[in-house]
Design goal:
501 residues, alpha/beta, Alkaline Phosphatase, subunit A, Arylsulfatase, C-terminal domain, 2 domains, nine-stranded mixed β-sheet, four-stranded antiparallel β-sheet, 31% helix
């Protein structure tokens, strides 16, 4: 039997709870429900890093950022990285990317792809060219439909959103889905590995009117205590001061959320079109489909929008579905802990291929014979100096979007924050912060009693044993994953001891 094809469908900045499958009360995702019914949905999947580039590099290398080195949005995959497309190219697969890249930059990596149709948040990147197939929609129409995203209206100092009326088929999410369907038609007789990478629902928060209206009267703004950040770590308070939405009129916040969730549904419809193409072409039973996100978005949780360097589930927990009808169990929800670094090892296992020794990730349970795991990890920062409230106060107010962008690279690089999460508890520690004069606070959340993570239990004597256990788990992980790249060992003859020698 030929090795199965692979499609990894990734959405950008979609938190798990943006879908009704993960408890959202108003945003239904019927195509993801269809995919879940045809496979396994992982209830507790996390990103290895809640930022675009590090998460995407982690996905394809199967490594955590502290080993692959891509810890900021400016540090793309290194030239010597071992990744999934290396393996698939060696097996003769036709390789494709349709949508957002934000991962591969080295010419040796780009040359691996046979099909390349890149689409970013503002449409086609300047100076970009397709490879292997042309855009299925007129380029001029695609560019015109992204004009609003390139000049968003000023709604608030903190955020912007837009509702627009361009031809729906020319928006990025529609073009990407159409392009993917055409790819499948053209390569239905080839073994292929395709990355379908939707830029939505990441900002700019602009959505076609039809999708915005689906959500406009249904969105619910999450509540949070007014004093939530009084005792929070300084890094959390800084982020809230920049991204907080309490000062904005409710109708503007609801409009923003309708745009975000409208784009979630827009992506979901695109997923449905890809599944329809697979079914129509008779490819479904020989194609493994994975749906995931790189990281999440606050979307109103903790009184914030967008994202930043913290580990609330709104940012760290992601949707993850693995489907291969006839070969993988169907309609099951796996409640063990999972991570984006596990996706490629899972795919390679299902294909009968060898997992590179450099990968931290391991095959996922339920879809393979692997043992379930009860813990997973995430991290943020490159060891840079902290960005404090005093630093923020040096900037003019109102802070909002202007402060967000002005401080972006500083905040992305600050500290070496690490998260360990089980189904019941989450612990966050910054070894860089704890040894500095700042000495920022650690975080410990009881996810059963406090699923919204609004009460830090780090100083609660009743949690002393839990805290010790979580710290030990974090230390073990840090040690086990420190040296990811295999070091050449002596030849086997050196391990044979001869008493006469």
């Amino acid at each position: 039997m030929a090795r199965p094809n692979v499609i990894v469908i990734m959405t950008d900045q979609m938190k798990a709870t943006a879908s009704h499958l993960y408890g959202n009360p108003f945003c239904e995702t019927p195509s993801l429900a269809r995919l879940s019914e045809e496979g396994v949905r992982f209830e507790h999947a996390c990103t290895p890093h809640p930022l675009c580039v590090p998460a995407r590099v982690s996905l394809w290398t199967g490594q955590y950022p502290h080993s692959h080195g891509s810890r900021r949005n400016e540090t793309f995959m290194s030239a010597d990285a071992v990744h999934a497309f290396d393996v698939w190219k060696g097996e003769g697969f036709h390789l494709g990317l349709i949508g957002k890249n934000h991962c591969f930059a080295e010419s040796k990596h780009l040359a691996l792809f046979d099909t390349w149709c890149e689409m970013g948040h503002g449409g086609r990147p300047a100076g970009s060219h397709t490879k292997g197939m042309d855009w299925v929609r007129p380029v001029a129409a695609i560019d015109a439909a992204h004009a609003t995203r390139r000049d968003m209206p000023a709604i608030s100092p903190r955020f912007s959103y837009a509702v627009s009326d361009w031809p729906e088929e020319d928006y990025g999410s529609a073009v990407i889905a159409t392009q993917a369907a055409r790819f499948l038609e053209e390569h239905r007789r080839d073994p292929f590995a395709l990355w379908v990478s939707f830029p939505d629902p990441h900002e700019p928060y602009e959505t076609p009117r039809r999708y915005w209206e689906m959500m406009a009267d249904r969105v619910e703004i999450p509540l949070h205590p007014a004093d939530e950040f009084d005792r929070a770590p300084e890094r959390n308070r800084v982020l809230h001061a920049i991204l907080g939405i309490e000062e904005d009129p409710v109708e503007h916040v609801e409009g923003l959320m309708a745009a975000y969730y409208g784009n979630v549904r827009f992506v979901d419809d695109g997923v449905g079109r890809i599944l329809d193409a697979l079914d129509g072409l008779g490819l479904r039973e020989n194609t493994i489909v994975v749906f995931c996100a790189d990281h999440g978005d606050f979307a109103g949780e903790h009184g914030m929008q967008c994202k930043g360097g913290v580990f609330y589930d709104a940012l760290a927990r992601i949707p993850l579905i693995v489907s291969w009808p006839g070969h993988v169990t169907q309609g099951i929800v796996d409640t063990s802990m999972a991570n984006l670094v596990d996706v490629v090892p899972t795919l390679l296992t299902l294909q009968g291929l060898v997992i590179p020794a450099s990968m931290h990730g391991r095959p996922l349970p339920t879809v393979t014979a692997a043992t379930p795991r009860d813990v997973t990890f995430s991290e943020y920062g490159a060891g840079g100096p902290p960005f404090t409230m005093d630093d923020l106060r040096a900037l003019p107010q109102p802070w909002g979007r202007r402060a967000l962008m002005r401080t972006l690279r500083w905040r992305e690089a600050e500290g070496r924050r690490k998260m360990v999460r089980t189904r019941e508890w989450k612990y966050i520690h910054d070894p860089a912060g704890s040894t500095s004069s700042r000495g920022d606070t650690d975080e410990l959340y009881d996810l059963r009693a406090d699923p919204w993570e609004q009460h830090n239990r780090i100083d609660d004597p009743a949690c002393r044993d839990v805290l010790a256990d979580m710290r030990l788990r974090l230390a073990d992980w840090s040690i086990q994953t420190e040296d990811a790249r295999p070091v050449p060992l002596p030849e086997s003859s050196y391990y044979i001891l001869d008493a006469d020698a």
